[in-house]
Amino acid sequence: MPIDAAQAVAAEPRRSELTWDHKDVILYHLGIGAGTPATGPDELRYTLETRLHVLPSFATVAGGGRAVSGGLATPGIDVDLAAVLHGGQTVELHRPLPARGTATQTSRVAAVHDKGKAAVIVHRSDVEDAEGPLWTSQSEIFVRGEGGFGGERGSATRLDAPEAAPTWTVDRPIREDQALLYRLSGDWNPLHADPEFAKRAGFDRPILHGLCSYGITLKAVVDTALGGDVARVRAYTTRFAGVAFPGETLRVRMWRDTPAPGRVQVTVTAVERDDAPVLADTVVTHT
Ligand SMILES: CCCCCCC[C@@H](O)CC(=O)SCCNC(=O)CCNC(=O)[C@H](O)C(C)(C)COP(=O)(O)OP(=O)(O)OC[C@H]1O[C@@H](n2cnc3c(N)ncnc32)[C@H](O)[C@@H]1OP(=O)(O)O
């Protein structure tokens, strides 16, 4: 049986060691579009080792993407990768991320929801180093065709886009080779690179990694709404509402102090496809 929810949730948490250094951080930043203009002072914070600030979404790839592969390598879960889409992602920061580190990750399947036509696997990781907790990450993995196993449906948090005009709107072009560059940070899923595999998954061409859009968007928020200060981010949550393709332009709309003070609510759409939703229910919590 492809999904045995009870077995997945009861499985022992998996522990793994994560290590990273400035090279991994810079590669990740390039993979989410940093470095344009190449020598602009704001971009050098993301790309020059002597000035490096770590974007908190780096947590999703630290250690070479084990969070991604580990999410599906759990007893009780045996699914076709072509049926898998990233559904949602949250990262909660306990401290700013260092540019190099060694940490222990403890991961488990927190829940498996039965959506009828799909299963949603909720995968949680807690990461700490010698100085204490660093971050907590939660991924929702949407597996098409794997529902109907008789599990709980689970609840969904939905945020209406505010009626007021956005405080800021910025456009972020996705390079044609963005997914090819991003995958070097550890998510080698062929869905993002191999046209034949993408067709088998139901797409005309390879789609962008959800976590690449996630990183592009957080960088846009930090650079626009948080004065470029990565250390102000406390938490970042999103739902992947629709696909994005390399070569498109992401329009990032941001509302200050929405839905509460100290939060920026964000929507992301694909400009070339009539503002089709890409990220929804997206909030950056900050100091
Ligand atoms: C540990 C980390 C491991 C990560 C593994 C992933 C590896 C990566 O390489 C893979 C990727 O990056 S894939 C790219 C990024 N993701 C996407 O592009 C998906 C975009 N979203 C969609 O296509 C649709 O929203 C879609 C298809 C997701 C849903 O659309 P519909 O089928 O139309 O669903 P709908 O009828 O609206 O709702 C049915 C029930 O499902 C819930 N739901 C909807 N969208 C969800 C989402 N994004 N995440 C989680 N749950 C979601 C709905 O709430 C509904 O349930 P309920 O009726 O109980 O409310």
TrEMBL record:
GO terms for biological process: fatty acid beta-oxidation. SUPFAM superfamilies: Thioesterase/thiol ester dehydrase-isomerase. Residues 162-269 form the MaoC-like domain. CDD domains: HDE_HSD (cd03448). Residues 20-145 form the Peroxisomal multifunctional enzyme type 2-like N-terminal domain. Belongs to the enoyl-CoA hydratase/isomerase family. This is 3-alpha,7-alpha, 12-alpha-trihydroxy-5-beta-cholest-24-enoyl-CoA hydratase. It comes from Streptomyces eurocidicus (Streptoverticillium eurocidicus). The lineage of its organism: Bacteria, Bacillati, Actinomycetota, Actinomycetes, Kitasatosporales.
